[in-house]
Design a protein that fits this description.
The chain is mainly alpha-helical. The protein has one domain. Helices cover 79% and strands 0% of the residues. About 9% of the residues have low confidence.
């Protein structure tokens, strides 16, 4: 299943009508482009999604694909709830906390069972998905927008997994230290996101 998602994203990009999205503000803006760029436009989303990948890479084994899949699945469901304009209190706080907690999980090399890791990232995926859904422009297709933000999320998870494996594999002791420092930096950034307006 996890191998199918990047292929579906590539197919969506290949068949996307580029002419429709070439001139933003003129005519209909394509939902896929809006959905794909939305997670990439906020540092909170980028850091949390890369942290999920790094966390999965540290856990290894089945967690390598189950943890990101859990995040993507729950985020997609919560995105639908957000698109339906169902309110969620403290969503922004939840997003900020996700960066702190997931950054700390990487920094501390948190070793938990795969199911616990899936539950942790799933909890934070609710906040991220809801935010993506609520912020969907009214003029776009909900399905195309959803596919776009899921594809961007998969890409960010893959970057985190790739970085975690590449850095730790190049020089195991120093690589792990670099990844842990990166996780700590993410946690600090998450704290800044929480306290700064």
């Amino acid at each position: 299943m996890i191998r199918l998602i990047p292929r579906l994203c590539a197919a969506a990009l290949a068949f996307m009508p580029l002419a429709a999205s070439a001139h933003v503000g003129i005519g209909h803006t394509h939902g896929f482009v809006n959905g794909f760029t939305h997670p990439l436009s906020g540092i909170d989303h980028v850091l949390a999604m890369i942290a999920v990948g790094l966390f999965a890479a540290q856990l290894g084994g089945r967690a390598l694909w189950l943890v990101p899949l859990s995040f993507v699945s729950v985020m997609g469901l919560a995105g639908g709830i957000g698109m339906a304009s169902v309110g969620m209190p403290f969503a922004e706080v939840g997003i900020g906390l996700s960066v702190v907690v997931l950054g700390l999980a990487v920094a501390l090399r948190l070793s938990v069972p795969t199911l616990a890791a899936m539950s942790l990232v799933g909890l934070f995926a609710v906040f991220h998905g809801h935010a993506h859904g609520v912020e969907m422009p009214q003029s776009v297709s909900g399905l195309a927008y959803g596919v776009g933000f899921i594809c961007a999320t998969v890409l960010l998870h893959a970057i985190g997994i790739g970085l975690g494996i590449a850095i730790s594999g190049a020089d195991e002791a120093n690589g792990r230290l670099i990844v842990r420092i990166g996780g700590a930096a993410m946690a600090v950034a998450g704290a800044a996101i929480l306290v700064l307006p």
